[in-house]
């Protein structure tokens, strides 16, 4: 199993990889959930609406306890990250997910997996990291003003201490891209490696505890990403920081 | 660059994933969060309204309870007043009845005494008359042998007068 996703075919110089297919499957699952949750929307929630409301309510309350009134524009982003990452991770845990092979001109004798966890592709995790950080910065400019935003990185007060702190802040923001993307990518990719090894060693019973572990990792990574996004958005939109 | 290639980073794939995620965020915001926010707000409004109604109902219940206690205490007070007034009236009626009974009794007694006295007088008179008649007959019997007819009449008249005087006294 290589680090980069396998290219299945190309459409007008755009490479369709196995992680791209999984991303589209994730999109379909999310759209189905949205349809099921809002199909018979009522004040007394039932079924999918109840589950989705529980998730949204949890993040909404957490955001309110951290960011107060700013939670109204923070929590939709946080829930979006959580749902997208969780579903991407869980879809990959379906038994036999990677066992379907795809034969292309460039693939070898056994072909390449048709499906692979979307979050085991650095392109996706980096895109999520960029979305998280850029949105936090955009919300910061919107709610603290351009002056309040720039003063975080460039301040001549208490020279040169705050200037140095500003440079550190800038480096910290750059580090967020790496930490966000590689944490998620590393965990899911490593999980896939472990599962592949376990299935290779003994496909019966032995993978069971690792499946449970991977399900936990799937949930924990989604929560970690969502919570960090919430925290950074709160810090960036708070005038006192 | 080698590392980037090793990780499979590609501008087009990265942009595809970024745009794809932003579309998903848009879909979620537009078709999931917006309707659910309305439901949340509506539910919140209903809960607040219900709590307010419950609070009002509690206040109304408290007021009704106070009113009930007030009415009961007033009714009790009125009943006590009525009972005491009835008691007083009964006492007065009792006293009045007793007094009337006493008066009636006294009247009846007086009447009985008067009747008895009259009866006694009548009987006394009758007895007097009977005793006069008897004395007359006794005297007539006794004197018939001792005196003549004229003396007998004189003596008898005088004796009868004396008897009559005594009876009158």
Describe the structure.
The complex is a heterodimer of chains A (241) and B (169). Chain A starts with 6 loop residues before the first strand and ends with a helix. Chain A has six helices and four strands; from the N terminus they run E-E-H-H-H-E-E-H-H-H. Chain A is 68% helix and 5% strand. Chain A has one domain. Helix content of chain B is 95%, strand content 0%. In chain B, helix 2 (11-146) runs antiparallel to helix 3. The model of chain B has no long low-confidence stretch (mean pLDDT 88). The A-B interface holds A 2-5, 13-15, 17, 20, 23, 27, 30-31, 34, 37-38, 41-43, 45, 49, 52-53, 56-57, 76-77, 79-80, 83-84, 121-124, 126-128, 130-131 and B 5-10, 12-18, 20-25, 27-29, 31-33, 35-36, 39-40, 42-43, 46.
Give the low-confidence spans of chain A: none
Quick check: average pLDDT of chain B?
88
Shape of chain B: rod-shaped
Structural class of the secondary structure composition of chain B?
mainly alpha
Radius of gyration of chain A (Å): 21 Å
Total number of helices of chain A: 6
Biggest interface pair, counts:
A-B, 40 and 32 residues
Mean pLDDT of chain A: 91
| Main β-sheet description of chain B | none
- Strand arrangement in the largest pleated sheet of chain A: 1-2
What topology emerges from the helices and strands here?
The complex is a heterodimer of chains A (241) and B (169).
Chain A: E1 7-11, E2 14-17, H1 18-39, H2 47-67, H3 71-91, E3 101-102, E4 112-113, H4 122-150, H5 161-201, H6 207-237
Antiparallel strand pairs in A: 1-2, 3-4
Helix pairs in contact in A: 1-2, 1-3, 2-3, 3-6, 4-5, 4-6, 5-6
Chain B: H1 2-6, H2 11-146, H3 149-168
């Amino acid at each position: 199993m290589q680090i980069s996703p396998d290219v299945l075919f190309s459409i007008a110089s755009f490479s369709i990889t196995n992680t791209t297919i999984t991303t589209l499957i994730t999109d379909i699952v999310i759209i189905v959930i949205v349809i099921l949750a809002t199909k018979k929307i009522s004040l007394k929630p039932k079924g999918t609406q109840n589950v989705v409301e529980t998730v949204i309510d949890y993040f909404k309350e957490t955001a309110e306890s951290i960011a107060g009134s700013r939670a109204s524009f923070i929590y939709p982003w946080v829930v979006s990250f959580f749902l997208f990452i969780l579903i991407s991770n869980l879809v990959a845990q379906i038994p036999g997910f990677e066992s379907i092979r795809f034969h292309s001109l460039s693939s070898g004798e056994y072909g390449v997996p048709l499906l692979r966890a979307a979050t085991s592709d650095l392109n996706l995790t980096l895109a999520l990291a960029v979305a998280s950080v850029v949105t936090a910065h955009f919300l910061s400019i919107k709610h603290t003003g351009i002056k309040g935003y720039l003063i975080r990185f460039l301040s001549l007060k208490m020279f040169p201490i705050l200037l140095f702190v500003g440079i550190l802040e800038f480096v910290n923001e750059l580090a967020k891209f790496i930490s966000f993307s590689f944490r998620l990518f590393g965990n899911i990719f490593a999980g896939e490696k472990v599962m592949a090894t376990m299935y290779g060693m003994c496909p019966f019973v032995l993978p069971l505890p690792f499946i449970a572990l991977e399900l936990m990792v799937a949930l924990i990574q989604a929560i970690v990403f969502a919570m960090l996004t919430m925290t950074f958005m709160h810090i960036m939109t708070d005038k006192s920081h | 660059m080698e590392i980037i290639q090793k990780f499979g980073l590609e501008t087009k794939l990265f942009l595809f994933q970024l745009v794809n995620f932003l579309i998903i965020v848009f879909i979620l915001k537009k078709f999931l969060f917006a309707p659910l926010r309305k439901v949340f707000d509506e539910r919140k409004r209903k809960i607040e309204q219900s709590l307010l109604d419950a609070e009002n109902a509690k206040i109304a219940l408290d007021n009704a309870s106070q009113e009930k206690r007030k009415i009961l205490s007033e009714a009790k007070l009125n009943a006590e007043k009525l009972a005491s007034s009835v008691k007083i009236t009964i006492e007065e009626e009792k006293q009045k009845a007793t007094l009337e009974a006493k008066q009636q009794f006294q009247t009846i007694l007086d009447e009985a005494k008067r009747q008895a006295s009259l009866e006694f007088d009548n009987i006394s008179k009758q007895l007097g008359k009977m005793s006069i008649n008897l004395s007359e007959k006794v005297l007539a019997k006794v004197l018939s042998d001792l005196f003549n007819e004229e003396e007998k009449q004189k003596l008898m008249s005088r004796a009868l007068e004396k008897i009559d005087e005594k009876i009158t006294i």
